[in-house]
């Protein structure tokens, strides 16, 4: 059986039974699978796929007698975000599998121009990192920042893996410094699984903080501030349709542009995002952020004046 067809069937079924629940019947699910032009689809196929989804992914699909249909049986203590992240991973697998599971897959290289991302070579660390996360054990490794000449030893509680701008990071709790830290996998050296168990599950706390920040750097204080931005008319439509942060609110809007408010942790990623808009975006508040960006812009201007 074509593995891409199996993956597409699994994804189609999961799309139908995920929240908000519509409780499709078995006949409705089979009809949808057939409409997707998937081969050899029958009610027996659905039952087999339902079992495979439970066995492969640990996701149970149950039938609701009252609604006479199927739904995703999600434990009450499980965050829906976990399923959504997993679903995105499956969809990514589907897109990549589409390029390789065909009769002339070799020819696809003629129509692709992939980025030569050397950082992906360091995904070799993923197996041991995954073991540390799965077993909830501390991880030991050396880590060399871009500013240091020698690696520093760490032993941390691993929290989760995250991706940001084509780089992978490990989020962790560093008990020695009593703070959250993120480590780029490409700068991690010889990670090893220890026998020391994770003392406390701090993932909910980290994820709550992550909601208030851009990127991967939270900063030592984790202080959420109100950031007010003046956006000119040229950039306003773009930032309205692609918000800088989910907390973004429009305070004022006219023919000259708009005034925005963000409730966010001020960190280097936010600074980079604002500076990336160039002359189209101006920080009005807080004053400390405005002054810091003013100094950076002046320094940049001096370099070009030379």
Note down, in words, how this protein is organized.
- The strands form 3 sheets. A 5-stranded antiparallel sheet has the order 6-5-4-3-7, with helices on one face.
- It has 9 helices and 11 strands.
- It folds into 3 domains: 3-99, Orthogonal Bundle (Arc Repressor Mutant, subunit A); 119-210, SH3 type barrels, CATH 2.30.30; 224-305, Alpha-Beta Plaits (2-Layer Sandwich), CATH 3.30.70.
- The mean pLDDT is 85.
- By secondary structure, the chain is α+β, with helices and mostly antiparallel strands.
- Strand 3 (137-143) and strand 4 (152-164) form a beta hairpin.
- It is globular.
As a percent range, the share of helical residues equals 25-40%
- The secondary-structure element order is HHHEEHHEEEEEHEHEEHEH
Describe the oligomeric state of these chains in a short phrase.
single chain
- Provide the spatial order of strands within the biggest beta sheet: 6-5-4-3-7
Q: Give the low-confidence spans.
A: none
Euclidean distance between termini CA atoms: 65 Å
Please identify the structural class as seen in this structure.
alpha+beta
Domain tally:
3
Q: What's the total count of β strands? A: 11
- Could you report the average pLDDT, rounded to the nearest whole number? 85
In terms of DSSP E residues, the strand content is 25-35%
The backbone outline, from C-alpha atoms, is globular
Radius of gyration: 24 Å
Q: How many DSSP helices?
A: 9
Please identify, by name, the CATH architecture of the largest domain: Orthogonal Bundle
How would a crystallographer describe the biggest sheet? 5 strands, antiparallel
CATH topology of the largest domain, which one? Arc Repressor Mutant, subunit A
- So what's the CATH class of the largest domain? Mainly Alpha
């Amino acid at each position: 059986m074509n593995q891409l067809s199996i993956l597409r069937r699994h994804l189609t079924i999961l799309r139908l039974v995920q929240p908000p629940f519509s409780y499709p019947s078995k006949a409705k699910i089979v009809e949808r699978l057939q409409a997707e032009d998937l081969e050899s689809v029958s009610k027996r196929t659905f039952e087999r796929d339902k079992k495979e989804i439970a066995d492969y992914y640990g996701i149970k699909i149950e039938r609701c007698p009252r609604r006479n249909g199927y739904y995703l049986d999600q434990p009450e203590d499980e965050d829906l975000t976990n399923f959504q992240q997993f679903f995105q991973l499956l969809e990514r697998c589907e897109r990549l599998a589409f390029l390789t599971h065909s009769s002339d897959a070799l020819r696809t290289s003629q129509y692709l121009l992939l980025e030569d991302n050397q950082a992906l070579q360091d995904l070799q660390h993923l197996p041991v990192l995954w073991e540390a996360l799965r077993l909830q054990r501390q991880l030991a490794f050396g880590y060399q920042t871009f500013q240091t000449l020698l690696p520093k030893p760490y032993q941390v509680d691993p929290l989760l893996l995250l991706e940001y701008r084509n780089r992978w990071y490990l989020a962790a709790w560093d008990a020695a410094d009593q703070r959250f830290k993120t480590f780029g996998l490409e700068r991690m050296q010889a990670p090893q699984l220890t026998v020391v168990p994770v003392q406390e599950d701090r993932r909910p706390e980290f994820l709550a903080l992550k909601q208030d920040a851009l990127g991967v750097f939270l900063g030592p204080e984790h202080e959420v501030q109100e950031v007010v931005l003046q956006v000119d008319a040229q950039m306003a439509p773009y930032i309205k349709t692609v918000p800088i942060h989910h907390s973004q609110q429009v305070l004022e809007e006219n023919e000259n542009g708009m005034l925005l408010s963000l409730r966010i942790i001020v960190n280097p990623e936010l600074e980079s995002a604002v500076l990336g808009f160039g002359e189209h975006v101006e920080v009005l508040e807080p004053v400390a952020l405005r002054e810091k960006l003013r100094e950076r812009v002046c320094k940049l201007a001096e370099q070009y004046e030379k």
